[in-house]
Amino acid sequence: MQKQAIWIDRQGKEYFSASEISDSHLKNIIHMLERQSMLLLSDYPNFQGEMAQYYAEQEYDNMSYELSNRLNYFYVLAEKRGIKLYD
Fold it and tell me: What percent of the chain stands above pLDDT 70?
């Protein structure tokens, strides 16, 4: 069974443990996920047809849930390290 990475950076480097992520990288990850969250939440899908709308909403909800879980994981990690996210 292959271990799943907790983060993959834009160069493709995989991080399997929170200890591998530097404090500055962690802050950048959180800020990026917050921006993604704002973009996702600002544009709820709107399709014609009941089935298209139903499946679009399901996918939107799944993406929102995944993004929220990932963001919460990194918030907790930053809090444990005592990282100040906002000046």
Answer: 99
Provide the mean pLDDT of the chain: 89
d(CA 80, CA 74): 10
Q: Which 3 state secondary structure label does DSSP give 84? A: coil
Q: Hunting for tokens 């992520």 — which residue is that?
A: 21
pTM assigned to the model: 0.81
Domain spans in the chain, listed from the N-terminal domain onward: 22-81
| 42-48: Cβ within 8 A, 24+ apart | none
Cα distances from 76 to residues 56, 61, 73, 80, in angstroms, run 30, 22, 5, 6
7 φ/ψ angles, rounded to the nearest 5 degrees: -155, 145
Over residues 18-29, the pLDDT tens digits come to 999 999 999 999
From residue 74, give the alpha-carbon distance in Å to each of 17, 44, 50, 59. 12, 25, 36, 23
